[in-house]
Amino acid sequence: MLALSQSPFSLFEHLDRQLHQAEGTPVAEIRENDDCYQLAVELPGISKDAIEVKATEHGMAISADRPKVDSGEDRVLSEFHYGSWRRNFYFGKRIDPNQLQAELQDGILHVTAPKVDSVRAVSIKVRN
Fold it and tell me: Where do the structural domains in the chain lie, given as residue ranges?
């Protein structure tokens, strides 16, 4: 059961997760600490060579392809999702796309995105 007291947006987050699962788009989890964002995406059965991670300073896109394998046998039931998908993630603070680290372990893609120090305000003298 979903507890609405957790967050005013928890119902929307729950519905979004359900929609992604129904579409075959993998579900994800994002954690944040002072230095970085840590993203985990469930990708069971997908090889690391089939995954692409692209990043900008504002977020990242993760895409992959799960081709349908024809074994020559008739399937009685198939709930697997085949084909290509892409998912975009945006962060509240800028990240350094050149320092991303990604690792696939036990069907979970772990991506670490280091934050970029915020731009500091400076004073500029006005000249004639």
Answer: 27-67+82-117
Residue 63's pLDDT is: 92
Average pLDDT, consecutive stretches of 10 residues, N- to C-terminus, the chain (128 residues): 54 59 78 96 91 93 86 79 89 91 95 81 60
Check residue 122 and give its pLDDT: 55
As a whole number of angstroms, the distance between CA 27 and CA 18 comes to 9
Out of 3.90.1150.10, 3.40.50.1970, 1.20.1260.10, 2.60.40.790, select the CATH number for domain 27-67+82-117. Answer: 2.60.40.790
Q: pTM of the full predicted structure?
A: 0.71
Three-state DSSP string of the chain: CCCCCCCCCHHHHHHHHHHHHHHCCCCEEEEECCCEEEEEEECCCCCHHHEEEEECCCEEEEEEEECCCCCCCCCCCCCCCCEEEEEEEECCCCECHHHCEEEEECCEEEEEEEECCCCCCCCCCCCC
The widest CA-to-CA distance across the chain, in whole angstroms, is: 81
